[in-house]
Amino acid sequence: MAQLNPVSILAIESSCDETAASICVDGRILSNYIANQTVHEKYGGVVPELASRAHMQHIVPVVDAALKEAGRSVQDMDAIAFTQAPGLIGSLLVGSQFAKSLAMALDKPLIAVHHMQAHVLANLITANGDENNKPDFPFLCLTVSGGHTQIVLASSPLDLKVIGETIDDAAGEAFDKSAKILGLPYPGGPLIDKYAKEGNPLKFKFAEPQIPELNFSFSGLKTSVLYFIQAETRKDERFIEKNLNDLCASIQHTIIHILLKKLNKAVQQTGVKRICIAGGVSANSGLRNALKEMGNKKGWQTFIPKFEYCTDNAAMIAITAYHKYLNKEFVDLDISPSARAEW
Ligand code: KG4
Ligand code: ZN
After folding, report:
1. Nearest CA to ligand 1 atom 16
2. Does residue 270 surpass a pLDDT of 60?
3. Exposed site from 8, 10, 21, 200, fewest CB < 10 Å?
4. Ligand 1 center to 179 CA (angstroms)
């Protein structure tokens, strides 16, 4: 039966190091508020205990800001949604406890969202910066983040199937670990992107794995970068400094080549030519351009979410929760978050 009253949802994301809240009304995002945690920078990666503490400090002001920006009060909400899995357990606990308390106090339904499903559905918010440009189903989504690398076949908003994934490191880790070898701070992905713009992507060659089916592997690339840098810096200790742009461009080029090769194989296997990307690494300008180019060449329809919906955010949790609301997929208050979760 058609929904007559508008559906308002407050969604909370706290799976890693971003505390985020979003308000969505009938699938339209009214606010998308994020507090980043800078506390981890000096440690070269996310420190779980510090992340949970920062979530505790941020969650009330972040939810408050999202409600204010949307011009809504918490009493206007029809449901409360939160990221249930996967992620850092201490971080997930802060968001889930907050969402559960709110749902109980307001006597509203609670919706549990899978973070990776939400990254895919970020494409239903907006694509190519155009609110009206969204993919029809079915589509393929290349989800590339700091913790995951997957090719997902989306047949409907709630029917998503992982058809390929990494067997070791994620694409984001390949960026971040390579950046660390080059002496760049965490997270190195955006910095590699920045320096790569001025470099020659074909200057240096790094190992590309031969992995069967639609799966990926990135741990060999990291090792190949490490051995190459060690050998070159033994000959010239200023090697990195002199070649930073070309090194970044070549590493980025290799990662993109590995990703697009498998995506092309997935298109051939499924016959689906509507292609989306999602996850933090989809903010990479080289990947965005290469996907557009490949799409033009191969006759694919490509969809790329706005930057703010690529990296971790609560708008993607809200849009997923909206579809779950329409399907009446609610959870009980005794639900627990989970660090790992199959889907
Ligand atoms: O999806 P996300 O925000 O968090 C996870 O769920 O992991 O992804 C974070 C990852 C990090 O590895 C970060 O380096 C990478 O996304 N990233 C980028 C860029 N922006 C973020 N990697 C390459 N180029 C970028 N512009
Ligand atoms: Zn993520």
Report:
1. 280
2. yes
3. 200
4. 12
